[in-house]
Amino acid sequence: MPQTHLVEPDKPVDLSAIPTCAEMFSDDRPAAEREFRQLRDELVELQRRLYAQGTQRLLVVFQAMDAGGKDSTIRKVFRGVNPQGVRVYSFK
User: Fold this and answer.
1) Which of 2, 17, 32, 45 has CB atoms 3.0–4.6 Å from 26's, for a disulfide?
2) Range of the domain at 55
3) How many structural domains comprise the chain?
């Protein structure tokens, strides 16, 4: 994942300063899929830790036009994560 997409705790976030172009990510699909699976496994473990700690939350924001693939992305990213610990909201 590009370092430009990392958000540091306790620091303000300027979403308009974060690039959204796909070129920021790998052109090597097999490598990108391996990294995705590793990050997803890490998300599963972090969910357990966050639940055990009981004091912090994780906010994930997907922004796209209608039919932009948000639903399928949510399904792929959160596969393996306990659905009882996930809330999905639509806002406009």
Assistant:
1) 32
2) 3-85
3) 1
